[in-house]
Amino acid sequence: MWNAHSSRWQSNDKWSSDTWGRGSGNESSSWWTQDRERASNYGSGSVPAPKPTYPASFRSDDTFIDSTAVGAGNHQFYRVVQPTDWSRKANLAGRPVEGIRLHEMCFRGMSEFSLLMLSEGRFQSVVWTRSAAEGMLATQLLKGIREAKLDIDSAAVESLKQAGSSVPDKHKQAPQFMAALVEALLKEIQSKIPKPVESTAEDELARAKAKLAQAGLMLTPQKNKVEEDEDVDQLRSDAAGSSQPPVVGKKTHAQEVSRLKRKAPDDVAARDEARALVKGKPKVSMKECRPSAVTNESVDKWLASLKAQYKGKYRELTKHVSHVVALLAEHSDKNELLAAAVAFGLDPNFAARMNVTNLSKCIAVAKFQAA
């Protein structure tokens, strides 16, 4: 229900609600035109409800009020409400559509304030929604507009001017009159929707490994033939006392240099530290302390929120996080980080959507709390 009693459309200026249905000569606005002369004759007594009239284009029969298929879903207008989970729960299934009473479609039933306003003969209108989320958004938005006493018409006119459009006739072109304002609201809502993260083969593998890790299992990697050949060549070279470098095989020179660098003696301590970071259990589970989303902005915002918790140690925390991120990026892969994050209490599906850097930040915070 949309109670427009306190909205700007009820005011006495040139955009008042009375003008919406008067003098337009347009059928699209006639549905809310009130026949004041006839209503005044009834007084406060009860009058019978008029029978519904159907458009001449309707094709009616015993099953349908209109059997014409409409829309992409080929929707048809049944005489009785069809049985579905929702219609059964609402006690509407099997009942004639013409017999559905207004209060049955209200969230609060007969407690709906708009029915009270309707009983006083005040302007009311129904806004149809197709989900609970739509209904709640429309209700709260319109309630906020009324409470703030916002001038909807002025906002619509200003939106049209900002868009460089002419102001159409409010009566004959009501949808066009509101178009620019509606577009502005839609853009604001769209800006709040997080962008979907594309799922890659690596992410799918990471999710599978996360489930295994949650079950206490690990997927043992298998060496490919090139790696096995390199190991054999290295053993032969060492046994012969040769000073020649091992056969590189199909790997590039850059990959070989990177492999040798990881095996350098000075790098052993860093590798050990990286392994230690992805082991153990934190004092505070990441179920209770984690970012609200997987995006870089959400993770950074979460880290900033820890400043109040670590007043005297926040600078130390940030240095620790930077060190851990650099260390794990060099000496760990995403699968290892994913398994560690899940072991620390992070939801597997949530963790699988995070990149290596954000996983490392979460692990760094968890280890800092455990220190």
Task: Summarize the structure in short.
This protein has about 375 residues and is mostly helical.
Protein described:
The longest helix has 18 residues, at 314-331. The protein is mostly helical and 371 residues long. The chain has helices at 17-20, 36-42, 85-89, 113-119, 132-147, 152-162, 174-190, 201-214, 225-239, 253-262, 268-277, 296-305, 314-331, 334-343, 348-352, 356-370, and strands at residues 64-70, 75-78. It has 3 domains: 8-45 and 52-148, no CATH class; 205-213 and 268-370, no CATH class; 224-263, no CATH class. A two-stranded antiparallel sheet has the order 1-2. It is built from 16 helices and 2 strands. Helix 14 (334-343) crosses helix 16. A hairpin with a 4-residue loop joins strand 1 and strand 2 (75-78).
